[in-house]
Amino acid sequence: MDRYIVTGGAGFIGSALVRTLLARGYRVEVIDNLATGYRRNLDEVQDQITFHELDIRDYDRIAPVIAGARRVFHLGALPSVPKSILQPVPSHEVNINGTFNVLRAAAEGGAGRVVFAASSSAYGDTEVLPKTESMSPNPLSPYAAQKVLGEYYCSVFAKCFGLETVALRFFNVFGPRQDPTSMYSGVLSIFLTCLIEHRSPTIFGDGEQSRDFTYVEDVTELILKASEADGVSGKVYNAGNGNRYTLNQTWDLLQKMEGVSIPANYGTPRAGDVRHSQADVTAAVRDLGHAPRFSFEEGLRRTLAWYRDDLERQAVASDSGVTLVS
Ligand code: UD2
């Protein structure tokens, strides 16, 4: 049976993709070193997958797993713009050397198409919105530069080594299982847990920066489409929703949804931050059949419900003395 590899499959987007693939009846193998992902993200599907606790920096160990796979979804990365500024070495090693290793393993091992998780941060600040793939990259952080180089490597592997590749620039993906506990966590995971616990979030800067927040299931569907579409190898596509909301609008919306009033705190702007982000999805719709289904509000509702259930699960587990080991 054909094998589908997901690097970073214990992460929040990767574990959602694993579920999407399993729902299609595919045989799924995960490569993850659990640096930022968690085994618990795969809890109820663990019997249906093969889990390889491996680091993508270790070519010799990942190569045999990737060899011969029908599709490789390369989502393994050290995310976060600020983390890449504070700790550029590990993020370089994982995001650049690790990506090279995955592509090399796929090319040398005769694997099928690799779909790479690139980033909307590639654009930096542009004068024009929405952002289209024809704009020149303008990375503002090591993380953004690493993701742009990953795209270049994808296209070069397609040109020079005959490996099929597609890079998708993810635009601020959110949804269930996004880890809210780190200082580098995605802003919506932080906002949603603050909302549930009636705490004020800290907004970095004036809150007028905007993002194209994209619900995770729309992204996993697009990843699947990108893995099968004809005539797209070597190309780069936006994986966004096409809308944008400022952080102030977003926090207001969440308070209205819950019927509460919790003023946010404001802190200093974050280094490396992009001011505005919004995807032009024309090319993804045309070439890949992208069809986002979830409005921002619907995505927020689903994610909020998931965090609420998860907090209750954790409370029950701690009352019963069970330790949730990640
Ligand atoms: C970037 C990419 C995104 C993805 C991600 C991976 C852009 C536009 N987006 O996300 O596509 O690759 O990196 O890490 O580059 N913020 C607060 N308070 C908080 C946390 C964040 O105000 O507690 C702000 C932060 O300063 C930023 C916005 O919220 O302006 C979004 O931050 P984020 O860390 O969720 O994602 P971002 O945009 O760096």
What does this molecule look like?
It is a single chain. The protein is α/β, with parallel strands linked by helices and 326 residues long. The protein has a domain at 3-174 and 214-242 and 273-293: Rossmann fold, CATH 3.40.50.720. The protein is built from 10 helices and 13 strands. The protein has helices at residues 12-23, 59-66, 81-86, 88-108, 142-161, 187-196, 216-228, 247-258, 282-288, 296-319; strands at 3-7, 27-32, 49-53, 71-74, 114-119, 165-170, 173-174, 202-204, 210-211, 214-215, 235-239, 245-246, 265-267. The strands form 4 sheets. The protein has a 7-stranded parallel sheet with strand order 3-2-1-4-5-6-11, with helices on both faces. The chain has a two-stranded parallel sheet with strand order 7-10. The mean pLDDT is 96. Bound molecules: uridine-diphosphate-N-acetylgalactosamine. Uridine-diphosphate-N-acetylgalactosamine is lined by residues 79-81, 119-121, 170-172, 186-187, 190, 201-204, 209, 211, 247, 270, 273-274, 277.
Question: H/E order of the elements?
Answer: EHEEHEHHEHEEHEEEHEEHEHH
Q: Which CATH top level class of the domain at 3-174 and 214-242 and 273-293 fits?
A: Alpha Beta
Strands of the largest sheet, in order across it? 3-2-1-4-5-6-11
User: How widely separated are the two ends?
Assistant: 31 Å
How is the main sheet built? 7 strands, parallel
Under CATH, the homologous superfamily of the domain at 3-174 and 214-242 and 273-293 reads NAD(P)-binding Rossmann-like Domain
Judged by helices, strands and strand pairing, the structural class is: alpha/beta
| Shape, per Cα inertia axes | globular
For this structure, the CATH topology of the domain at 3-174 and 214-242 and 273-293 is Rossmann fold
- CATH architectural arrangement of the domain at 3-174 and 214-242 and 273-293: 3-Layer(aba) Sandwich
**Ligand species:** uridine-diphosphate-N-acetylgalactosamine
Tell me the total number of β-strands: 13
Radius of gyration: 19 Å
